[in-house]
Amino acid sequence: MSEAAEPRPVVALGTKTARDALAARGLVLGSHPPGTALAAVAGLIRDTANNVDEVQQRLLQRAEMAISQLQSVTQGRDRYRHGTTDGLLQSLGTEIDTLVARRGEGVQLLRLLTTSYADLNGAAKPAPAPASSPRRRGR
């Protein structure tokens, strides 16, 4: 049995999120006349996507550091071998938690902004998911 390759992390998560959300509405982020609502929202999308990309890159770096530190524990090479393990990750765990929260907020903002952009652009709304029909019981 062959071992499946590990999925590659999405480094440009903000860019991908914005592109995918707009593509679902048949749109791409365009250039618009300065001072228009579309130009303002497009600029916010670009800025927010770049911010999410930066946060994602920092998060991936910190996660790799944590993985490395934890692998040394599983292999018995950690410096806390026979002592207490308090502080093994030190502030890394808190930093990862903070970055995950910031990334989540950024992705939510991107979804809001891309929806607003699509609405301003007059794009068709994506098809709603089919509603589940109530099941009838036999008597």
Task: Spell out the key features of this protein.
139 residues, mainly alpha, 0% strand
Shape call: elongated
The N- to C-terminal Cα distance equals 50 Å
Mean pLDDT metric: 84
* Helix run count: 3
Could you name the ranges where pLDDT drops below 50 across 5 or more consecutive residues? none
- Work out the helicity level: 55-70%
Q: What kind of sheet is the major sheet?
A: none
Beta-strand content bin = under 5%
Textual characterization of the structure:
With 139 residues, the chain is an all-alpha fold. Helices cover 57% and strands 0% of the residues. The protein is built from 3 helices and no strands. It has helices spanning 13-23, 37-74, 92-121. The chain is elongated. The relative contact order is 0.17. The mean pLDDT is 84.
Write a brief caption for the model.
By secondary structure, this protein is mainly alpha-helical. It has helices at 13-23, 37-74, 92-121.
